[in-house]
Amino acid sequence: MTEIDYTRKCSQYLSIVLCNNPEYEEWLLSDGNLKRRYPLTGLYSALGFEAAKAQSFNDLLRTFRRFKQRHFLRIATRDFCHYADLSETTGQLSDLASVALQVGLDVLSAHPDWWAWNEELDVWRRLGGKIPLVVLGLGKLGGHELNYVSDVDLICLNPESNEDGENFIMLLSRLTHRLSRLLSDRFEGDRVFQVDFRLRPQGKQGILVPSMSGALEHYLLRGRAWERQMLLKCRPVAGERSEGSAFVRELRPFVFRRFLDFQAIAELREMRSRILTEAVPFRPGARRFDVKLGIGGIREVEFLVQSMQLIYGGRHPELDEPNTLKCLEKLSGLGLLPQGTAEELKGSYTFLRNVEHYIQLDQNRQTQSLPHSEKERMRLVFAMGFGDDEIAFLKELEMHCSIVHSRFQELFQEKPEEGEDLGSEKLRHGLAGGWGGSPLLARGDFASTQPGRSASPPAELFDKLQETLKAYPASVKSEILFGALEKFSGVCDRELLEKILVRMDTYFGRVARRTGLIKLFGAVKPWMAPFCQLIASSELAAALLSHNPALVEGHAVRSGIFSPARQWEQSSLGLVERAEEYGEKLEWIRRLKNERIIQLALADLGGRIDFAALETEQTTLADFVIRNTLAAVRQNL
Q: Which residues fall within 8 angstroms of residue 403, CB to CB, at 6 or more apart?
């Protein structure tokens, strides 16, 4: 079976295109078109050359659609025949959309008589025919992972003010409308891509082409959680690209919060809950399962990745990566996602995206649901490489959905903790009467304050700590009270015991008031007991942590692992250098210094570092602080 015959069997849409345009087959097989990936510049040159011949807007519509059909045929045939992987396929589709936008702007700007009114033509002449417009791609276009049949989500911005005022704004709006029609209008039975501007600032209520300064003000002052998530994939795709890149850079403080943003989990969980209430699980024999929105579908992978980007992106600049597959690799490389989990998700995401693609290609229709008719289903099964074995295909689909959903639940769903009942029982019986009701008292550990015997702390302080810890899961509460405080069961100094309880109560009380931060203590983790013991043991560490409870984030993200000086300095230097503002640099230096003090104190407490090495580490830390503070001051002069 030839490549062309194979493509005909996989897609009814492409079969019809080939039947209506037999010259496409000759084009595909000539000049090595089937055997190569087109570079962005090659696509731009080819479409620009053809579009320059257009004598009217209808000519341009026809040129764009024929160009799209030829390259869809090329991209899809390479896809079906496994000459290209998912990354190449989605990248080529994204390049095709970007080129269509740029060439469309070029041609429309050169032919204002096709779309502008008289007043706007005067503005066009004063501009010398060069119309300033920034076109930003969002969603899958922004991530360079576009579908065959997909909405192209765009934001168009005006990068400069103009003395023509309202006429200038109308010129930009009409150009943007006409550009949208060039891609979206169904002409001679086909379109290029559906264009959607609804994600712009203030949505449908906002102006079609807001100013860059106005859009920036909207996001920085009034931006919402879903807009942060949306802007993860924002990148310039046409128009004034340098202006667009500058705009995206200015947005980064809004998208990626300076420090680990666990508050984002609460916001994202609300969005996730709304998604899951509408999602339908996959069932054996399912005929209308939605591979994007269903349980274990594409959206769960994308949501998982984007959530981790929002949480950790402020500390790890590498996560400023709009492509889902590439970001999974970055998360694995940083140790934020186990390598096995990342590989599983990449495999399942690739399978699900291929299913989505082949469903769409069959009828040239934007859908993600398994087809209802038997003929369409069997074309999908064949395209996916299962021959005529629909049962095997459905089993494979079910397996991938199960993998995605289980990984999604592990990372973002509240789950009962193992041993929670045991911990609760221990608390009920062992701590019913404060420290005085502990089994430790029965052993005589806290029986009196006589020399050689441990002291009994004030019941009111212990009760207050227990009240504070009600905000935490029972197992975490048990870990703090038994795992950490039992280490001090032999303390004879009543005043010291009081200080220990006050330190613990102060810190955990302040953490409890921060919705996002308390998520770190959602389950018992290996780093918690040493961390609690540090608060109890060190007045300096307790004061530092109580003043800035979020310092625990640096410890938690490393899972309590102590980083050698060279490794710590390298990662910290990247964070300081990335900060652009003077005040931001100093804030990072202070934050990193304090986090390192906590790390060193924990290493000292755990016996993982001797006195000489500790002195060397402290000297290295002081040197880092002085050098980078001095550099920041000099840069600010």
A: 296, 344, 345, 347, 348
Is 529 found in the same domain as 500?
yes
Give the number of other CB atoms < 10 A from CB of residue 451: 6
Phi-psi region of 129 (alpha: psi -120 to 50; beta: other; left: phi over 0): left
Overall number of domains in the chain: 3
Output the CA–CA distances (angstroms, integers) from residue 201 to 140, 213, 605, in the order listed: 19, 12, 51
Domain that holds residue 231: 3-255
pTM of the complete model: 0.80
Burial tier of 278 (Cβ tally within 10 Å: 0-12, 13-18, 19+): exposed
Q: Are 516 and 479 in a shared domain?
A: yes
CA distance linking residue 124 with residue 180, whole number of Å: 19
Structure tokens at 585: 């640099």
pLDDT tier at 443, thresholds 50, 70, 90: very low
Q: What is the pLDDT of residues 478-523, one digit of tens each?
A: 888 776 676 776 667 778 888 888 999 999 999 888 766 777 787 7
Closest to 593 in 3D by CA, of 564, 549, 623: 623
**Cα–Cα distance, 418 to 277 (Å, whole number):** 27
Q: Are residues 282 and 381 in the same domain?
A: yes
Residue 462's nearest CA partner among 425, 424, 432, 426 is 432
Q: Which of 255, 282, 304 finishes a domain?
A: 255
Q: What are phi and psi of 156, to 5 degrees?
A: -105, 135
Any idea of the CA torsion for 36, 40, 41, 43, to the nearest 10 degrees?
70
